[in-house]
Design brief:
Bound molecules: pyridoxal-5'-phosphate
CATH topology of the largest domain: Rossmann fold
Function: Allosteric enzyme that catalyzes the rate-limiting step in glycogen catabolism, the phosphorolytic cleavage of glycogen to produce glucose-1-phosphate, and plays a central role in maintaining cellular and organismal glucose homeostasis.
Strand content: 5-15%
Number of domains: 2
Family: Belongs to the glycogen phosphorylase family.
Catalytic activity: [(1->4)-alpha-D-glucosyl](n) + phosphate = [(1->4)-alpha-D-glucosyl](n-1) + alpha-D-glucose 1-phosphate
Cofactor: pyridoxal 5'-phosphate
Helix content: 40-55%
CATH class of the largest domain: Alpha Beta
Number of strands: 23
Keywords: Carbohydrate metabolism, Glycosyltransferase, Pyridoxal phosphate, Transferase
Number of helices: 35
Largest sheet: 10 strands, mixed
């Protein structure tokens, strides 16, 4: 990219004077960032054109990854690393009196996702580009990403995140590839020459304009693209008559209505309000993406080569949000390309594949039939026909068929069930960790498995170890490279070569020193952002992720309350100092989660202001969790809290990011923790609690009684009482909803059931931590075994076993 730092400086300064029309010294830091990012982006865009040409000459099968969420994180440093130019640019900037990390912090971190699912999509883009897979991401360009979390008086408040105010240097608006999307209207059947056709009239037209973000693979050889679609009104959408009557807001009413489609990202835990808009978003992304795929295909292969479509195109749907890909691709093949139903259906099912991300029943998407019919009349007709044919194909001679049909049909009870649509319309359905896939096969989607068991497969999630280790933890990366060479960067499996260093005391000391340095870095961020002073020599016990009942931040909180109570009774209790670090957003409408955030703050106040205990324990909540903050936190953790109720966390990916950075997991046998346990080995992880089977059995038998546990454990009874007895201030400050969820409504997530074992295991981990040699060896074993969790491995499995590319 640059032949050396002098070359870089020359090009960069030339770019500055050309675009900023003022000398470098007069530019703000943000402007300096912007010029640098634009410069790298335009090189990436050029390489994208080359990649496309190469892939198309090789007739490579193309993968389209549809996702309503992409949590990209900042790109500048990442792309410099991928282009092999980081050191050069860093040195050049230093000569100019600038610092790459400071410049990089000027970049907005686009919050175009809620959490794990969106970050997974971004990790996949990274790995697909690295593996030279011809892949395009399809997403939405929300003007406001997920809300910014602010804590006021110990409570979460939400502020809009206008991440685009200063522009986004990594995107290229591609007006010439805009598509028209239709909403509403009527569909009429007409007969002509014995053929039925469907005419759609009186619809509203919305323009879908793509903004393309280049995705640079490590090594800089492959540059793919993420297409973010924005909804815009067609130009004529202004009511001039109304305008000239002075009715300005009426004149632009329809424009606003259309622009609202990609105005904001919906939080995952949705309320009924705004449902219609959410469905519009889903169809908008799907229809824009499918139309662009079809056009590109026809351009490339001609307008009649449909049979070969599944050999040349793979469409992957990340969760059910893009499930309308199934009827929309059908619609275009039938109505626009004039294929027969059976041929079209064969193409659709061979092309589309689907990943399920959750078994939480409230997260399985359903839409009222009436809404679907009114908003997408032709698409709904196709869904109806898919459902009709599915029912017809059902073998009614087998016992239990009625039950299976009722749980697997698409239309049921006045609703369109999106997961069922996705499964029926796909050739592959995968879960995201071994235990999750088992639950899908044996429980949630059992009815399908009976017919189509070969469709179901597992693809354990992964994360980009280049972002979450190489970029986020440069000191550790350097130590690793000094020991085993740099091969691990492109082949994470090589991290296993670190295992022999478990007996090298100099190496282990170095590992400890690096962890300490990362803890200091986080401690100074905490001091700056919240004023709380923490001891980097204390054990950092970290839980960062969305706040959710099933993730059980509550269990962690109760553990800290228990320590507080013990320290108050026995201030001389032997306890290595601990810092408990939380971070995460609660969905705006999710009261229980917001109360959990408030409880963490109430507890932090209590603990941190009490000199009797704050020597031993501190509690910190970091505001506004996101990819950038994560990159600072994961490398600084000693203990990784992965304590969801077994059976509820599909995979988790935070657990993997911690592991790459040498944190030791304290967790349940849930999601990918099961595989972490298997790889790291029993000695290098702390497992506790009910198993998924035990949780399910409680469910069948109905004999769990949370109050019995409080009766048996007085310490726990004290804690649940403290939620409401004035311990946290007056009655208005009490945590009744949390108390009641546990005591009156019988503790749906088994917090009380797992408390005792959790606590015991926590103390076991604390003891291990005090044996520094032993702990460092555990930490190293985790790093060495983390390679399996690179998303490089995951996307290669998708490529070979689902998409059939390579
Ligand atoms: C990795 C990641 C998550 C997922 O965390 P889990 O612990 O798996 O729930 C959520 N949010 C962000 C910003 C992440 O980077």
């Amino acid at each position: 990219m640059f032949s050396g730092k002098e070359d870089f400086k020359e090009q960069y300064l030339a770019e500055v004077s050309e675009t900023m029309a003022k000398p470098f010294g007069e530019c703000t830091r943000r402007e300096k960032y912007e010029v640098l990012a634009k410069m790298i982006c335009s090189r990436a865009a050029k390489l994208h054109a080359e990649t496309r040409l190469r892939h198309s000459t090789l007739r490579r099968k193309e993968v389209y990854y549809f996702s309503m969420e992409f949590l990209l994180g900042r790109l500048l440093t990442n792309y410099l690393i991928n282009f092999g130019a980081e050191a050069t640019v860093r040195a050049g900037l230093k000569d100019l009196g600038e610092d790459l990390d400071e410049l990089s912090r000027m970049e907005p971190d686009p919050g175009l996702g809620n959490g794990g699912l969106g970050r997974l999509a971004a990790c996949f883009l990274d790995s697909m580009a690295f593996e030279d897979i011809a892949a395009t991401g399809m997403g939405a360009r929300y003007r406001f990403g997920l809300f910014k979390q602010k804590i006021e008086n110990g409570k979460q408040t939400e502020e809009p995140d206008p991440w685009l105010v200063n522009g986004y240097p990594w995107e290229i608006r591609n007006w010439d590839s805009a598509r028209q999307i239709r909403f509403g209207g009527r569909v009429e059947r007409t007969f002509e020459n014995g053929k039925i056709s469907f005419e759609h009239t009186a619809y509203q037209t919305v323009l879908a304009v793509p903004y393309d973000v280049p995705i640079v693979g490590y090594g800089g050889k492959t540059v793919n693209m993420l297409r973010l679609w924005q909804a815009e009104p067609p130009e004529e959408k202004i009511d001039l008559a109304a305008f000239s009557r002075g009715e300005y807001s009426e004149a632009v009413r329809e424009r606003n209505e259309i622009e609202a489609i990609t105005a904001i990202l919906y939080p995952d835990d949705t309320t009924p309000a705004g449902k219609e808009l959410r469905l519009k978003q889903e169809y908008f992304l799907t229809a824009a993406g499918i139309a662009s795929i079809i056009d590109h295909y026809k351009h490339q292969y001609g307008a009649s080569a449909w049979r070969a479509f599944p050999d040349r195109v793979a469409i992957h749907t990340n969760d059910t949000h893009p499930a309308l890909c199934v009827p929309e691709l059908m619609r275009l093949l039938l109505d626009q390309e004039n294929l027969e139903w059976d041929d079209a259906w064969d193409i659709v099912t061979k092309t589309i594949s689907f990943t399920n991300h959750t078994i939480m029943p409230e997260a399985l998407e359903k839409w009222p039939i009436g809404l679907m019919q009114q908003l997408l009349p032709r698409v709904y007709m196709i869904i109806e026909e898919i459902d009709r044919r599915y029912r017809e194909s059902f073998d009614r001679s087998l016992p239990g068929w009625q039950e299976r049909l009722s749980s697997s049909a698409v239309l049921w009870d006045g609703q369109v069930r999106m997961a069922n649509l996705s499964i029926i319309g796909s050739h592959s359905v995968n879960g995201v960790a071994a235990i999750h896939t088992d639950i899908l096969k044996n429980d949630v989607f059992k009815a399908f498995c009976h017919r189509d068991s070969q469709k179901f497969n597992n693809k354990t999630n992964g994360v980009s170890h280049r972002r979450f280790l190489l970029e986020s933890n440069p000191d550790l990366s350097e130590l690793i490279t000094s020991a085993i060479g740099s091969g691990w960067i492109s082949d994470a499996g090589q991290l296993e070569n670190l295992l022999p260093y478990g007996n090298d005391s100099a190496f282990l000391d170095e590992l400890e020193k690096i962890k300490y340095g990362n803890k200091c870095r986080l401690a100074s961020y905490i001091k700056e952002s919240s004023g709380i002073i923490i001891d980097p020599a204390s054990l950092f016990d970290v839980q960062v992720k969305r706040i959710h009942a099933y993730k059980r931040q509550l269990l962690n909180i109760f553990k800290i309350m228990h320590l507080y109570n013990r320290l108050k009774r026995d201030p001389d209790m032997d306890l290595h100092p601990h810092t408990f670090i939380f971070s995460g957003k609660a969905a705006q409408s999710y009261e229980f989660a917001k109360e959990t955030v408030r409880l963490i703050h109430a507890l932090a106040d209590k603990v941190n202001s009490d000199p009797q205990v704050s020597e031993k324990i501190k509690v910190v909540f970091l505001e506004n969790f996101g990819v950038s903050l994560g990159q600072l936190i994961y490398p600084a953790a000693d203990i990784s809290e992965q304590i969801s109720t077994a059976g509820k966390e599909a995979s988790g990916t935070g657990n993997m990011k911690f592991m790459f950075n040498g944190a030791v997991t304290l967790g349940t046998m849930d999601g990918a923790n099961v595989e972490i346990h298997e790889l790291a080995g029993d000695d290098n992880i702390f497992i506790f609690g009910l198993s998924a089977r035990e949780v399910a059995e409680y469910g069948f038998r109905g004999d769990y009684h949370s109050q019995d546990i409080c009766r048996r454990l007085p310490d726990l009874a004290q804690i649940t009482d403290q939620l409401v007895n004035g311990f946290f201030g007056g009655q208005t400050d009490a945590f009744w909803s949390i108390h009641d969820a546990l005591i009156r409504y019988n503790d749906e997530y088994f917090v009380l059931a797992d408390f005792e074992d959790y606590l015991k295991t926590f103390f076991r981990a604390g003891e291990a931590f005090e044996d520094r040699r032993k702990w460092n060896r555990m930490s190293l074993a985790n790093i060495a075994k983390a390679g399996y969790f690179t998303s490089d491995r995951t996307v290669l499995q998708y490529a070979e076993e689902i998409w059939n590319v390579k």
